Amino acid sequence: MGKYFLPDGSFNEDAFRQSVIEALANIKSEKGDDFETTAGDWLSSYLKEVIDYLREKGLSGASMKIFKAAIDVSCGFGIQKVFLSTDYLGQILSSDDSSHEFKQPKRFSSDEKRSMIFKAALKVFSEHGYHNATIDEIADYSGVGKGTVYRYFSSKEVLINQLLMEKFQLIVDSISNIHSTDNDILQQIRRWIEFWIEFISENHELYRLIQSEAMIRRVEDRIMFYDYLISHLPMLKERIVSLNREKRLKTTNFYTVFYGVLGFIDGVVHKWFRCGRDYDLKEEIPVILEVLFNGFVGENTTKEHFFIPPEETPGP
Question: Quick one: average pLDDT of 145-162?
């Protein structure tokens, strides 16, 4: 839909007319004698789709111009009937002021446009994958022109990198805030796990994008999400060690444990996706905490130690 608007936000009537003309011409060549009925049904459906899009984007002021252009083109093709419900007709009429002048849509700031593009890119990338996504789709979802997208991001690669880096940093900032408190170390870890589960639950599209194969593979200057966490939380291990005054947490092989914890959470989340996200992911938090803090093998089941920290290894 974004192709029907110029860079300044005004409605491009010529582009809309041309699009409708091409669509009706294709229908006419395919349907022959059934053209009028098929074309009327298609135009009715398409007008509803366009009007819904305008309402969602806060651009209802363009409804009357679009409606007039569509009717004008349809008459040229000999289409006698176009059906719209009273709800849609009411919206079209209410969008037209007494002077029948088109009301210019809201002008968005540079930051707002960038945010709109990011939001649309996240949706398109998560639904279609990075390689199948196109700038045209992103422009359509965002409501800005394709040229506007390219003014902010020179390529799809630049767009995905900047999108992920921005989201990565937001996550890092939240984790840093948790670990900047003087709370008990186990409480900090618990809060971090709760935060991460809640974040995934509320941002599952972003999580799927982060986890997708195309995004986590090292390609040129892309980096894995967990590597980004480690490199931007350089004192995480030291903070945990310094706060572990009562020796309640094993910090030996910290990075193995770090990746292991995140991997375990990933497994729980993947189960949630396989179940169609039909339950609240936050319900899994107690189970995750129980397994990570207390293990999943009963205390009396085995006496075997699988790992002895170096400082506890008996001397020769």
Answer: 92
- Mean pLDDT on 14-39: 82
| Mean pLDDT in residue range 13-28 | 83
Q: Which CATH architecture has domain 158-316?
A: Orthogonal Bundle (1.10)
The C-alpha R_g of the chain, in whole angstroms, comes to: 28
User: Are 50 and 44 in contact, with CB atoms under 8 Å apart?
Assistant: no
Amino acid identity of residue 120, one-letter, is A
| 245-277 pLDDT tens trace | 666 666 566 777 788 888 999 999 999 999 999
Distance CA 316, CA 314 (A): 7
The pTM (predicted TM-score) of the whole model is 0.58
Structurally, at CATH architecture level, domain 108-154 sits in Orthogonal Bundle (1.10)
| DSSP result, 36-99 | HHHHHHHHHHHHHHHHHHHHHTT-GGGHHHHHHHHHHHHHHTT-------HHHHHHHHHTS-TT
